């Protein structure tokens, strides 16, 4: 099956390590991004595609004064929800609770030993494979078409349930013996493959950079941009790739394929 090829260009660091989304891609192209960080603070950015900063508004610099959001052009290519990849959405058990009474193992999506080892190594989880109980949630945050209507890149949040070493109590005094952790993935999804891809099998097809918390994605022409959230020790970033799409099959090529395989 033909798929688009991605060539990593570069990454653009933002100022903080918060949650990061894309406001859109404008002519130029110009990249517009938004970041939420700290105690309810917001920053917005406009960049040229080469990483040059055009404009920035940051509530952390306002000394308590109101700031005006960036003015956005009307012809932006905007982020899209996961309409074509919603089959990957799955809402499971509570984030934490008691595994037995809640029949947790009947609700979560099971994980193979290979799946568990992959998650532990990929995300640096301080857990053993035995502790991982299954996939408790999956939600497509955004999708962008690489080759419509079949191939999409998505940003997705999953939640993995794990067993505690003993029963504990939360801040409300409620007992729990399992908890969960949210993980963020960016993947290439091919809808011609008729099976749910619960785990990040396509993540290796995003070359050039190690993603941290991919939270949004947009395709504009031959450009893919992924917004990658940060943390205290790592700034959020925008990652850029060039897209090369396969040439469409000619009618005689399609006939030969049907005749001879």
Quick recap:
This protein has 261 residues and is mainly beta. The protein has 3 helices and 12 strands. The model has no long low-confidence stretch (mean pLDDT 90).
What helical percentage do the residues reach?
under 10%
Strand content: 35-45%
Task: Count the beta strands.
Answer: 12
Shape: globular
Total helical elements? 3
Largest sheet data: 4 strands, antiparallel
Count up the domains.
1
Topology:
Blueprint: E1 5-13, E2 19-26, E3 30-37, E4 41-48, E5 53-58, E6 90-91, H1 104-107, H2 113-123, E7 132-147, E8 151-169, E9 175-190, E10 213-220, E11 223-229, E12 237-244, H3 251-260
Antiparallel strand pairs: 1-12, 2-3, 3-4, 4-5, 6-7, 7-8, 8-9, 10-11, 11-12
Description:
With 261 residues, this protein is mostly beta strands. It has helices at 104-107, 113-123, 251-260; strands at residues 5-13, 19-26, 30-37, 41-48, 53-58, 90-91, 132-147, 151-169, 175-190, 213-220, 223-229, 237-244. The chain has one domain. The longest helix is centred in the middle third of the chain and has 11 residues, at 113-123.
């Amino acid at each position: 099956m033909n798929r688009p090829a991605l060539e990593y260009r570069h990454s653009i660091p933002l100022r903080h390590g918060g949650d990061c989304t894309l406001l859109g891609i404008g002519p130029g192209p110009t990249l517009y991004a938004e970041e939420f960080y700290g105690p309810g603070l917001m920053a917005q950015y406009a960049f040229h595609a080469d990483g040059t900063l055009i404009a920035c508004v940051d509530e952390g610099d306002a000394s308590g004064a109101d700031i005006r959001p960036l003015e956005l052009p009307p012809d932006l290519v905007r982020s899209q929800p996961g309409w074509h990849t919603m089959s990957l959405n799955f809402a499971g058990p509570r984030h934490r609770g008691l595994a037995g009474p809640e029949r947790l193992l009947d609700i979560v999506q099971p994980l193979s030993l290979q799946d568990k080892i992959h998650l532990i190594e990929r995300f640096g989880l301080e857990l053993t494979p035995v502790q991982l109980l299954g996939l408790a949630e999956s939600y497509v945050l955004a999708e962008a078409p690489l080759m419509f209507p079949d191939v999409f890149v998505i940003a997705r949040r999953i939640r993995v349930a794990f067993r505690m070493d003993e029963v504990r109590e939360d801040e409300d005094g409620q007992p729990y013996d399992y908890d969960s952790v949210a993980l963020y993935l960016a993947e290439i999804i091919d809808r011609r493959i008729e099976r749910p891809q619960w785990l990040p099998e396509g993540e290796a097809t995003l070359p050039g950079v190690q993603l941290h918390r991919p939270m949004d994605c947009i395709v504009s022409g031959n450009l893919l941009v992924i917004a990658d959230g940060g943390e205290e020790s790592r700034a959020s970033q925008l990652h850029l790739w060039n897209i090369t799409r396969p040439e469409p099959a000619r009618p005689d090529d399609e006939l030969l394929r049907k005749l001879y395989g």
